[in-house]
Write a structure and sequence with these properties.
seven-stranded mixed beta sheet, 295 residues, Nucleoside Triphosphate Pyrophosphohydrolase, single chain, 23% strand, globular, binds 5-O-phosphono-beta-D-ribofuranose, two-stranded parallel sheet
């Protein structure tokens, strides 16, 4: 279960310790001290920013005390979006403060930006069908079962929606299509001719009617007190399944594997991705939960 408090945002994965990809242990944060409004004089979070971030790749900000760095928090800062999808965030001693509460760790960990790090998550769905092409209903709820395209993240081995970071200046719609192409269709490794064909099919899928499932804070294990993930998750539903039949799945880039997965509340997915899928099943009246187990 995610914890709820003060600002109404949830986080529990953001307390993952040791911090992903390291031996760094977060300062344990009890549930009743997650919210910033709860005074905690002796709070001593550990400071950590991964060496890969400190090396200043193009996607990372400089250190906060760098004299040439004057970020415009809560605003669009040139090509970099520093506005949060959850409204204004507090900047304390020059550092943005995680709107969902304490995480036991300061600095940026593995994240490049101080404050919000914007991502986009394409939720591509179709109905589960039997050999004759009929929709398959769940035996208990009688509701039809949806499937979504899932990738296995190389960094942690967890299954996830094939999302990724929004590049500076990039439109979210472009990120959604690009990330799906790179991670679920291995677009980066295709020949120019194959890429052109892929682009045509992708355009068909991504230009049809779609719906925004979720916009806001992500309960990501990489979050810190000063840097956190936010996303816009968008559902592209292939009602007949015919468009996706033209797009054979092939893992690429940060994805180690890709497959169609039946959507149910039993799925264990990265961050709070399973919550996004729940919202998708509600939209389509599809199966989600069998309800409480019988006594
Ligand atoms: C999650 O991290 C987002 O929901 C998105 O799926 C993902 C983006 O990060 P990378 O996959 O690019 O590492 O918080």
């Amino acid at each position: 279960m995610c914890s709820r408090h003060g600002v109404g945002l949830s986080h529990s994965r953001a307390l993952t310790s040791p911090y992903p990809g390291s031996q760094v242990r977060r300062c344990p944060v009890p549930e009743d001290r997650l919210g910033w409004r709860v005074a905690w004089q002796d709070y001593e979070p550990v400071e950590y920013t991964a060496a890969a971030v400190l090396a200043r790749p193009r996607w990372a900000d400089p250190h906060i005390s760098d004299k040439d760095f004057s970020p415009k928090f809560n605003e669009r800062d040139g090509e970099v979006e520093r506005k949060s999808l959850n409204g204004l965030y507090v900047v304390e001693n020059g550092r943005p403060r995680n709107p969902a509460g304490r995480t036991g760790l300061t600095g940026r960990g593995l994240l490049g930006r101080w404050g919000p790090n914007h991502a986009a998550d394409p939720v591509v769905t179709r109905w589960k069908r039997d050999g004759s092409g009929n929709k398959v209903a769940h035996p208990v709820t009688g509701k039809n079962i949806l499937q979504f395209v899932a990738i296995k993240r190389k960094d942690c081995g967890e299954w996830a929606i094939p999302g990724g970071m929004v590049d500076p200046g990039e439109k979210i719609s472009a990120t959604l299509k690009r990330e799906f192409g790179e991670e679920a269709l291995n677009a980066l490794e295709k020949s120019p001719e194959e890429k052109a064909e892929l682009e045509k099919q992708l355009h068909k899928l991504f230009s049809q009617e779609h719906f925004v499932v979720y916009r806001g804070y992500v309960d990501d294990p990489r979050n810190t007190d000063n840097a956190w993930m936010e996303t816009e998750a968008v559902n592209y539903h292939d009602e007949t399944g015919e468009t996706m039949d033209q797009l054979p799945l092939e893992a690429g880039d940060d994805a180690g594997a890709v497959k169609w997965v039946d959507i149910t509340e039993k799925l264990k997915l990265y961050a709070n991705h399973s919550y996004f899928l729940k919202l998708v099943t509600e939209k389509w009246g599809a199966h989600w939960s069998e309800g409480p187990a019988p006594e």
